[in-house]
Amino acid sequence: MPLKKNTSSKAIKRKTTPKKNISSKAIKRKVTSKKNISKNMNKNEEVIERPDLSPKIIIIQKSDGKLNNNNMYKIKYGLSPTTGFEPPYEPFKWNNSNTIRDNHNCYSYAFNDIHGKRKGKAQPGYYANYPPISSKEYNCDAIFKRIKKDNPSVYKTTFSKKCGNGYYKSFFALSLGANTDYHFYRQDKNGYWSHKPGRTNATNLDASNKIIINPYTANRDYSHLNYSTPCTFFCVHPKMTKTHSTTKSRWY
Predict the structure, then answer these.
(1) What domain range includes position 171?
(2) Out of 13, 70, 136, 188, which residue is the most buried by the measure of CB atoms under 10 Å away?
């Protein structure tokens, strides 16, 4: 009986030992061959780096800026807080040239988008190739949708809030009824507001010839056009503004 036990144990050792040796050698050979192939590829082939053509996403963060002492002073006297990125009030830039005065309106003025060779007045939505504004679109939501399509960076705010860093504030209202129209205002660096009614001169006075402190409360009744429907204040980034006087839309 002891002999049988010894014989079986040897047989087990003989069977298991060569299997381990063979498998380890095979693994070493495979690894070695892979290393040799990769070395040959590195010697004979060049690695070509392709440009990253994946789409990029720009995230625009909307934030209300903090109020400093200067803004607290302005709020005390009824003005809206400023960011320091407001355009200066320079009516001569818009009024002295007949071409610029005749081909720029309140929309391009509010976005401070001036072009010497522009032909015709800019309209909300034209840069995004929207058709001319229909009578059904004369409501605040539809007009703001057009503004947003032209300038995706804009966002709504209130008179008392400060726009985010890099932005300044604008406002628009509507004239409804027999004579439909829109009208835009912008806040200037001095804290007051100005506008450019159609092909007329840019001014910081309302319909009562008073300095515009707040376009919401200012007189907007010009008899033939009464912009009695206030819409919204919104923040504009001066480096991301686009207006256009023509459209490529096939909707009309």
Answers:
(1) 80-240
(2) 188
Total domains in the chain come to: 1
Q: Is residue 99 part of a domain?
A: yes
Cα(232)–Cα(229) distance, rounded to whole angstroms?
10
Domain contains 70: no
Nearest Cα to 171, choosing from 195, 206, 150, 138?
Answer: 195
Residues 133 and 148: beta-carbon distance below 8 Å? no
